Amino acid sequence: MANLLWIHGGACNGNTQSFLNAEEPTVVDLVTDFGINILYHHSISMEFGESARRILESILKDETPLDILVFEGTVILGPNGTGRYNTFMGRPMKDWLWELAHKAQYVVAVGDCASWGGVPATHPNPTESMGLQFLKDKRGGFLGPDFRSRAGLPVINIPGCPAHPDWVTQVLVAVATGRAEDVVLDELQRPQTFFKTFTQTGCTRVQYFEWKESTEEFGQGTRKGCLFYEFGCRGPLTHSPCNRILWNRQSSKTRAGMPCIGCTEPQFPHYDLAPGTVFKTQKIFGVIPREVPLGTDPLSYMVHAAAARAAAPKWAREDMFVP
After folding, report:
1. Where do the Cytochrome-c3 hydrogenase C-terminal domain residues begin and end (predicted)?
2. H or E segment at 83?
3. Which domain holds residue 145?
4. Which of 94-98, 200-204, 298-302 has the lowest mean pLDDT?
5. Annotation: binding site for [4Fe-4S] cluster
6. pLDDT by residue (tens digit) across 122-181?
7. Of 247, 264, 268, 93, whose CA–CA distance to 189 is shortest?
8. Binding residues for [3Fe-4S] cluster
9. Residue 101: how many CB atoms within 10 A of its CB?
10. Is 49 helix (H, G, I), strand (E, B) or coil?
11. In DSSP terms, which residues pair with 5 in a beta bridge?
12. 153 and 234 in a common domain
């Protein structure tokens, strides 16, 4: 069996709540079908207090092998680098994390906070939070840019706020069953299986994006128009499979009329949540989107957009759903 240890830093516990809702495979499947032995998880384990401490100490003494270390939440260094804002069993969590990471065959960061710092690392970052191997889009983080686990891999980042549960369980299965070589990572150390495509891939309103027909107000988002041009949807800019691997097997933000907030990218929350940046597309001269789909530039995009609008069929401006 593969021994797995899941520990928690500074965060809202959202990734654990997501993880517990996994379906393909479920958390129970990890144990019964794929041979994962969960040594400790704060929401699953029977162990707590001294029993949990003994598990961690047995790993550090090399009495119990650690195959997979999963970390959720930010690494909190405050105040003044001491880590005392976040203690665990009488020690700063960062100290446990450093030692355990260097014992693990694989290290997995689950969620935005663990991957790049997420919301807690937003300026002014009073808790001195950061991700395991990134701070936003800057490589390094807590473990440093050159960190490699005992199996020779950097931290495997599974971002999201929260990460989809099946992204997590499927990566854990691949690692636990000896197929880690199948987990090909991109430049941000995300599994390409999930993060090669864009959130827009599979979006039910992609036809409106192609014709550059915009949603005019909230409430139209499930009926007509694209949320990108006016409402700050980051679907064309964000790497994720949210419209391929649906949430609860039936929906996604964009399918429900909610703009994608780009939570799998290291810059999240974008523009540091400055006033007027949430659910509003930032524009140059009030017309040209400041950020356009990857692989193009604002001028080319606007030329294409003007041509697309001029050629748009009549149905693209109509409400397609009849009550």
Report:
1. 195-270
2. none
3. 2-193
4. 298-302
5. 12, 113, 161, 203, 226, 233
6. 999 999 999 999 999 999 999 999 999 999 999 999 999 999 999 999 999 999 999 988
7. 264
8. 242, 260, 263
9. 20
10. coil
11. 40, 69
12. no
Binding residues: 12, 113, 161, 203, 226, 233, 242, 260, 263
CB distance 97 to 60 below 8 Å = no
- Domains held by the chain: number: 2
Quick: pLDDT tens for 182-233.
899 999 999 999 999 999 999 988 888 998 888 888 877 567 789 998 999 9
In this structure, what CATH number is given to the domain that contains residue 311?
Answer: 4.10.480.10
Q: How far is CA 285 from CA 83, 165, 297, 298, 308, in A?
A: 44, 41, 16, 12, 21
pLDDT band at 94 (very low <50, low <70, confident <90, very high): very high
The pTM score is 0.93
| 137 and 43 part of one domain | yes
Cα distances from 105 to residues 5, 39, 113, 138, 311, in angstroms, run 11, 15, 22, 24, 55
